[in-house]
Design brief:
By secondary structure, this protein is of the alpha+beta class. The protein has helices at about 10-25, 65-75, 80-90, 110-120, 175-180, 240-245, 270-285, 300-310, 325-335, 390-410; strands at about 5, 30, 55, 60-65, 95, 100-105, 125, 130-140, 140-145, 150-155, 155-160, 185-190, 195-200, 210-220, 220-235, 235-240, 260-265, 335-345, 350-355, 375, 385. The strands form six sheets. A six-stranded antiparallel barrel has the order 13-16-15-14-17-18. A five-stranded parallel sheet has the order 7-2-1-11-20, covered by helices on one side. Strands 3-6-5 form a three-stranded antiparallel sheet. Helix 1 runs parallel beside helix 4 and helix 7 crosses helix 9.
């Protein structure tokens, strides 16, 4: 009664294995990973630098169908828990802007090397290219069947096989049927931290342009959230960190509801101040053509896109030809350029999974409330974090909690 099997060798699975070994050195721990190596997704985090965690771990940086339950779980997930875990393994970290914490060496590969060394030190058995397709229970033991026909038995199982985001890195959502078979339910899955698709006739001509602005996401007339940062305009819609953050709010499919993004291209200026400046330029240069009169203030292509949106043409018109109504519309658009959201890019472009196993179906140790001896952690749970290390932090901490509890579960009493 000492066999712990972990399904999934990502961040949560590796943290669970190490934590279990530290808690119960006598436990026989096995990681079953569907890819040809463990920790592959870790290498892609933080642009190859691995944004491990964040100084500001608060519920406001996470998204879940059960926010109160999420808040309860986060109370045991302070930043120092992740930092202490890695320092115990020999990895030291440093913080940067917005509280983002990286390994001191700034190498995601070093993080994985440290974790792999720990797996070796603790004699944790790793089986790669082993995709688990079925789970059952017989005589108080879990029986796991792999796609290659191999069978594994464990006294307890930790399910950390990830969500659906970035399937090329091994997370294709195959873990959810296993959880369902054990009695669990899950909230609708949707791609998070993914670029947005928008409906606009001007975007194609603005491909590749970046603009720092205040972005606001609306659901109908309700303001959901806002972000100040750099938006990248693409032929299909909007990218950049603010757009990626907004995708985490689309728990209702965009095609079934009304989401709109408003871009304030002059966030440091009030509406009245911007209008006064435009009127001043019109008075100073009444014969200037429209394509030149805001030079020095805004990217010309963006200005052309705004004029096209407002049907203010041709650009050879003089500024003095602008009517009061056209000026009002121009200022309103510069302070709130609206783009209807039609959806997101595919799972291939997503960094994390929204939705997942309902959080009220696990206890504070991440043990299943549906099946004794089963634990769940990581991305497959209904907790999607913002950019900035929040998702990896959730993976480490939930994995550590599940690993510790599983190790205590199988320990001799």
């Amino acid at each position: 009664m000492n066999r712990i099997i972990i399904i999934g060798g990502g961040a949560a699975g590796i943290a669970a294995a190490i934590s279990a070994a530290q808690t119960n050195p006598a436990a026989h721990i096995t990681i079953l990973e569907g890819l040809d190596r463990v920790g592959k997704k870790i290498l892609a985090t933080g642009n190859g630098r691995c944004n491990l965690t964040n100084e500001y771990i608060t519920p406001e940086h996470y998204h879940s169908q059960q926010p109160e339950r999420l808040r309860e779980l986060l109370t045991q997930m302070c930043t120092t828990r992740t930092l202490d875990f890695f320092q115990s393994l020999g990895l030291y970290c440093t913080s940067e802007d917005m509280g983002r914490i990286y390994p001191y060496c700034k190498q995601a590969s070093m993080v994985l090397d440290i974790l792999l060394l720990a797996l070796k030190r603790y004699h944790i058995h790793v089986v790669c290219s082993c995709k688990v397709i079925d789970i059952s229970i017989s005589k108080k033991a879990f029986i796991l069947k792999a796609e290659n026909g191999q069978e594994y038995r464990g006294d307890t199982v930790i399910l950390t096989a990830g969500g659906r985001a970035a399937p090329k890195q091994g997370t294709s959502g195959t873990s959810y049927p296993l959880a369902v078979k054990m009695g669990h339910r899950y909230a609708r899955l949707y791609p998070c931290l993914v670029p947005l698709q928008c409906k606009s006739s001007v975007l194609k001509g603005l491909k590749g342009i970046r603009v720092t602005c205040q972005s606001i996401l609306y659901h109908g007339k309700q303001k959901l959230t806002e972000e100040l940062g750099e938006i990248q305009l693409t032929e299909y819609g909007l990218s950049g960190i603010p757009a990626l953050q907004f995708s985490c709010w689309l728990d209702i499919p965009a095609k079934e509801t009304d989401y709109t993004i408003s871009l304030d291209l002059f966030p440091d200026w009030s509406y009245d101040d911007l209008r006064s400046l435009i009127q001043q330029r019109i008075r100073a240069y009444p014969e200037e053509t429209l394509d030149n009169f805001l030079l020095g203030l805004i990217n010309k292509k963006i200005l052309y896109g705004v004029f096209k949106t407002l049907c203010i043409e041709p650009l050879s018109r003089t500024t003095s030809s602008l009517s009061k109504r056209e000026i009002d519309h121009l200022v309103s658009t510069l302070k709130g350029w609206k783009f209807p959201v039609t959806g997101t890019l595919s799972w291939d472009h997503a960094q994390v999974t929204g939705g997942g196993i309902f959080l009220d179906e696990i206890d504070d140790t991440f043990a299943s409330r549906k099946q004794k001896g089963l634990y769940l952690a990581g991305e497959m749970l209904d907790a999607a974090g913002d950019c900035g290390g929040y998702n990896l932090h959730w993976a480490w901490c939930s994995g550590m909690a599940a690993g510790k509890a599983a190790a205590e579960f199988v320990a001799p009493h």
